[in-house]
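Contributing: when you submit paired examples, paste them exactly as shown. First protein:
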Amino acid sequence: MVRAQFGQETSTRGEFVRQANRFTDRITSDGSSDWPVEAGRYRLVVSKACPWAHRAIIVRRLLGLEDAISLAVVDPIRDERGWRFTLDEGDRDPVLGIGFLSEAYLATDSTFAGRVTVPAVVDVPTGRVVSNDYPQITLDLSTQWRDLHRPGAPDLYPEQLRGEIDAVIEPIFRNVNNGVYRCGFAAGQEAYDEAFDALFGELDRLSERLAGQRYLLGDRLTEADVRLFTTLVRFDAVYHGHFKCNRHKLTELPVLWAYARDLFQTPGFGDTVDFDQIKRHYYATHEQLNPSRIVPLGPDLGTWHTPHGRDTL
């Protein structure tokens, strides 16, 4: 077995096993937690390169929560000390006053020794991390922050569809969202082969599902589409080559390529994508996969703006 990129998250047979989310408190509107919904109190820390954080960026934008929850963006190049606020003046976040996201992690749990991840919701008054539980963060933005949504905001997690949405997003997470990482960070051939087959098997099933309907749940945009999009938009730029997900490019899968362009051209999706930060993060921080740290110039990004034809479905 080759040396793994993340040794503590690699099984004995070379499988990438993602660490559990350490901070799982929730911000609620009904007083059922220690963290009440309150405009201006919390700061969402993200990397524009990270697909898990990108979900929260999109949902925050779609729901019109920009004024209610402030946004901190870390440098896409993560070094051995973790995510850095080097995009800000003085290399410190201007609201939290810290140079590294790890400082907020350790202020919350001084014994934390895992990998510091984004997104993270930080309580500004205390500097403590409320949550890095990325699947729940976006659901709570839809359900707990409803009173602060913009007029006409979409209901991305409607109560009557939650069971169906949950059933759709579970295999998407397992085989696609996390599946590309299971391919890229596999440290054994068998582990890679299994992840590769699961990834493209799921993409084939999703192509069939989307062949006759505009979105994953039919004619309405939901949380499920947000979660699939953040992987698809990174696929050709990063996952196809860097993570060896190379049975097909996204541009070679007609249904998914048209679906991804449809979402990209929807306000809140494409205007939150930063391909420069995406490519620089992946190619410059995974030294086991790309020792040269050379960032490729392609692919041609202009094709994302070509007509998709999905609005007739």
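Second protein:
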Amino acid sequence: MSDSLDAFAAEKLAGLDAASLRRRLVPTARGPAAGAERAGRTLVSFSCNDYLGLSHDPRVIAAAAEALARYGAGAGASRLVTGNSPPLAALEERLARHKGKEAALVFGSGYLANLGIAPALVGPGDLILIDELGHSCLFAGARMSGARVEVFPHNALEALEALLRAHRGSVRRALILTERIFSMDGDRAPLPEILTLAQDYDAWTLVDDAHGLGVVEPGPRAPLEMGTLSKTLGSYGGYLCASRAVIDLLTSRARSLVYTTGLPPASAAAALAALAIVESEPERAARPLALARRFTARLGLAEAESPVVPVLVGEAEAALALSAALEKRGFLVVAIRPPTVAPGTARLRVAFSAAHSEEQVDALADALATLTPDRR
């Protein structure tokens, strides 16, 4: 029986290899100042979502170390079994205040948050409308809910309204899923217009703010504000900010919270310290977008809307080759390939951080201009 399993895996791997779609884990040590060490070489990483460089900030590390020494390495069990650790309670209070909400709930990861939110709020007989470029976990949570799922073209307000007009009257509840900053394209959702449509049709809106928190703010808030602790805040975990009633409901009904071990206290303490830095140092928060716009201006690309800039290549093999060529020049910029993005749209996803210098940004832009002269 194991022979047939291994044969199945080998056949699938051969197909992935042929299409340049196989993924491999490459030993890499992240360091401060956007550094990364790989195969004995020091690279400048433009592949990390540590947008403010806070994962290596001494204040964040100290907060994690203190919590680690006081509360231990792990949470022990589900938060509903072992109780709510003090760092988690403090973090939830601070997140809710930051988002202008009554309460917050921290999950083990952003993926787990989105697996739990939609199924706790809607189900069979309800409707979910989701942007076609929504993150994989938004789709996973939507499908797990059992609700009817309709996908609308990316940021297409007329299509979204058409779906609401066609289906809202025949369902009990409707939920719109989108992102503040789309992770692979770096563009923004038209949130004011989406929230207006939601109000007109009595629909609820969940905004995934994984890539916007702290770097693309302020802005209109949705009733359901979800995000992660692993990007701007340099730690690990996910969260939802909402009304007290909604958070209390999810505390009982979100399966990915109820049946999962709680976030380690050190991760919560690190995120709490990072959020305090975000709020007290606005000049740091503004830097990633400024660097992204410096990069797009230097290459003649459309002005960046966020710290994420896609450099479209096309085919997966070509994207891998361009990534490898940049690595030889000292830059870590990973190729993004299907199924993460649509076939024919493989790209380099360039992520900018407050830890980058202007000289590093210019050097990357110049290297890309040299390697892809047809783009100029």
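If you have annotations for the second protein, write them as plain sentences, like these:
The longest strand covers residues 308-314.
The mean pLDDT is 95.
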